[in-house]
Amino acid sequence: xxxxxxxxxxxxxxxxxxxxxxxxxxxxxxxxxxxxxxxxxxxxxxxxxxxxxxxxxxxxxxxxxxxxxxxxxxxxxxxxxxxxxxxxxxxxxxxxxxxxxxxxxxxxxxxxxxxxxxxxxxxxxxxxxxxxxxxxxxxxxxxxxxxxxxxxxxxxxxxxxxxxxxxxxxxxxxxxxxxxxxxxxxxxxxxxxxxxxxxxxxxxxxxxxxxxxxxxxxxxxxxxxxxxxxxxxxxxxxxxxxxxxxxxxxxxxxxxxxxxxxxxxxxxxxxxxxxxxxxxxxxxxxxxxxxxxxxxxxxxxxxxxxxxxxxxxxxxxxxxxxxxxxxxxxxxxxxxxxxxxxxxxxxxxxxxxxxxxxxxxxxxxxxxxxxxxxxxxxxxxxxxxxxxxxxxxxxxxxxxxxxxxxxxxxxxxxxxxxxxxxxxxxxxxxxxxxxxxxxxxxxxxxxxxxxxxxxxxxxxxxxxxxxxxxxxxxxxxxxxxxxxxxxxxxxxxxxxxxxxxxxxxxxxxxxxxxxxxxxxxxxxxxxxxxxxxxxxxxxxxxxxxxxxxxxxxxxxxxxxxxxxxxxxxxxxxxxxxxxxxxxxxxxxxxxxxxxxxxxxxxxxxxxxxxxxxxxxxxxxxxxxxxxxxxxxxxxxxxxxxxxxxxxxxxxxxxxxxxxxxxxxxxxxxxxxxxxxxxxxxxxxxxxxxxxxxxxxxxxxxxx
Length: 703
What we know:
Layout: H1 2-19, E1 37-40, E2 48-53, E3 60-64, E4 69-73, E5 78-83, E6 94-99, E7 105-110, E8 114-119, E9 124-130, E10 140-141, E11 147-151, E12 157-161, E13 167-171, E14 178-183, E15 189-194, E16 198-203, E17 209-214, E18 219-224, E19 230-235, E20 240-245, E21 250-256, E22 262-266, E23 269-274, E24 277-282, E25 288-293, E26 298-302, E27 305-310, E28 313-318, E29 323-328, E30 334-340, E31 346-352, E32 361-366, E33 374-377, E34 386-388, E35 394-400, E36 403-408, E37 413-418, E38 422-428, E39 434-439, E40 445-450, E41 456-462, E42 467-472, E43 478-483, E44 486-491, E45 497-502, E46 509-514, E47 520-525, E48 531-535, E49 541-545, E50 550-555, E51 561-566, E52 570-575, E53 580-586, E54 592-597, E55 603-608, E56 613-617, E57 622-628, E58 642-645, E59 651-653, H2 655-661, E60 662-666, E61 669-672, H3 677-680, H4 685-689
Antiparallel strand pairs: 1-60, 2-3, 3-4, 4-5, 6-7, 7-8, 8-9, 10-11, 11-12, 12-13, 14-15, 15-16, 16-17, 18-19, 19-20, 20-21, 22-23, 23-24, 24-25, 26-27, 27-28, 28-29, 30-31, 31-32, 32-33, 34-35, 35-36, 36-37, 38-39, 39-40, 40-41, 42-43, 43-44, 44-45, 46-47, 47-48, 48-49, 50-51, 51-52, 52-53, ...
């Protein structure tokens, strides 16, 4: 009853204030009264590095070059648990994974020269075992769960007792790095495949080399059959696989014209992966019995189920059916750039993708509650991917090489098209009259064009040097071009060159602006972890913040406050005039990349490689999180799914986005977002949280 009274009071108050005239009252969104906390599944945000199926076949683990490990229920495609480094931990990448045979622990090889042991049930790291020179690749776990084998410094193979973390045996003899390691199922021997063109069999008990087989090229993979009486190894570049009798140490046969990056015995047959080709072959004749669609490089096998992982996520394949039955793990978009439209009605992001198909795309999130979410495909890079048309909520971007479109963010449709004229980077003057871009018909030429007709007006410079940054100052007076060879400042609209710098003297520019005292500045993020501000006309350094790993930055409307996206997962805010830090915003789970203020200066947006875009208020409080969905295997520009959610449990988005990302945790039990829809689903959550009043709210929604 108390909650209902509060809602009615807010509703009544809003009506009273509205009837008094003047500024509309902001809607108040009360925290929903729920018995759970909201959660989001972000998946991996970089390419996959390893995968393993649990012994019971219920879950699989995946690792990526983002320092994370995720345990998945691959049937439901949902996360069971995850292991993410904290902002104080060393963030090496996990390269290889393997479950213990009882399924209780996960062994992970890290590029930080350690083997980590995780307790899966409790979601904790049990121990880290340091191995000098270990790259994180090619670990093997014995079938009795007592030992791990890895290759470290000087190509020495170490056998490590899991319980104590101590090295119990070392095997020396290889003269180059390992491609693969495998214990025989009975635990008596260890096989190794090496760049030094040898396959070796080592006796575990004696610690001696039993057999060294010399091939003519690098040996890529080695595997034992389930009864430990056979082994096979592959010489990929020469394309053959040899099958041996382990007890007699006698070659049984050679399978010609078969290259393999990984080998697994399946009964008396061989499962062979070469690049993205996966086949089941007869181990005696080499005859291909089945060809299975595969996805990239890492593979784990359990019975009839194969898990593979690569640039497009985890794929689960049924061997008997020869079909993919599950695909998940990398469904989110990495936001490389954020901007807010001139009116403040739209948040626009440029997004990279992990699947490798198509170019980046642009997503438009409507703060204006009368508009909707839109997505636009592009063919460009991420430097100057789009520009606003003056003060209008219209962006210009390139869908196909040389074909640019003006997209009306309000309708989500294109207004007009410019064919065979310009390509990125794009900068449009604030009056919408001039467009500065690359000339499609004159390769490497940066020029000024009529933004309406696309007619060439002034050529600035012709260069083939790689582009790092291009942009206009807010008053359209100067255009700055930073390439691998130089940094040049041009006066607009004359095109006159007014300043030139060596690249090293004005490198790593991330934004242009004008300070409160009228200086034209470039914000820079250098390679040494420092952030600095330079006068673009004199080169003078006017501000310096050291050791913050800057990735991007932006000035607020007061032109004296700078917000910096940092590599240590934080956003840092500074007062330029006082040269002091005023805030540190924490909430991201990876290096921050994009940063933007709303035009009124009240809200700050940041994005990171964790695929989250966070909305902060002036006090540094996290208000909302935005996540865009990338559907693997589809052209990204056609994907139009997302979620927005608040820490207190409110959420909004498309049905597919909500189903993919959002869940609720009730005392450790995972519940679907639909269980809390009546209380937590809040249409237009973004605009309503930011207090925009582009349309009338006729009521406060019942809780």
